[in-house]
Amino acid sequence: MPGNRTCPKSQQVLSHTTLTPNKLIREMISFWCKNQGIKLPDTVQFSKDGGLTKADRDHFVSLLKKMSSNLSGQREAAEELRQLTKKMPSFRALFVEYVNAVPHLLFPFSQKSSSEIHVGLQEDLITTLLNISIHDDNKKLVAENPTAEE
C-alpha cells in the first residue's frame, strides 16, 4: 500500500515495503492441500496497479452506483464494500482514484437523516469509511467530505 510504512501487527516502521514471495510456504500449502484433497485456485495474475484488474475496478464502480438505488441494493453494496475494504488494501486505495467515490458511498446519508437509515446499512457504511481511512491518502478525502462530517 503506497505511503503506509507501518507494520499492521507490531506498529513498527518498516525499513522497506518490497514484498518477496515466499515460495517455500506456497509449496508447503500446495502439498498440504494436495494431501487433503483440496484444489487450490489457479494463480491470479495481478495487474501492475495495486493488484486489481479492470473487472475489479468495474465491480467497484458498480457497487458505488448501487448506493443510489433502493434499500436492498444499498445494503448489498455496502456490505460487500465493507468486506472488500476490510480484506483488500487495494480496494481501499480505489477511493483515492475515483473522485466521487466517498460521496457515492455516503449517498444514503445525504437523502435521509441518520435515524431514518437502516441500522445495518449505517453500520456497513461507517465501517467502510473507517476501513478506507486506514489508507493514508484517503484520510483527507474522508475528513473533507461534508456528508462524513454530519
Automatic annotation (TrEMBL):
Catalytic reaction equation(s): S-ubiquitinyl-[E2 ubiquitin-conjugating enzyme]-L-cysteine + [acceptor protein]-L-lysine = [E2 ubiquitin-conjugating enzyme]-L-cysteine + N(6)-ubiquitinyl-[acceptor protein]-L-lysine
Gene3D superfamilies recorded: Leucine-rich Repeat Variant, Zinc/RING finger domain, C3HC4 (zinc finger)
Cross-referenced InterPro entries: ARM-like, ARM-type_fold, Ubox_domain, Znf_RING/FYVE/PHD
Keywords: Transferase, Ubl conjugation pathway
Gene Ontology MF terms: ubiquitin protein ligase activity
Record domain U-box: where: 1-39
Keyword tRNA processing listed: no
EC number: 2.3.2.27
Pathway linked to the protein: Protein modification; protein ubiquitination
Official protein name in the record: RING-type E3 ubiquitin transferase
Source organism (scientific name): Forsythia ovata
Lineage: Eukaryota, Viridiplantae, Streptophyta, Embryophyta, Tracheophyta
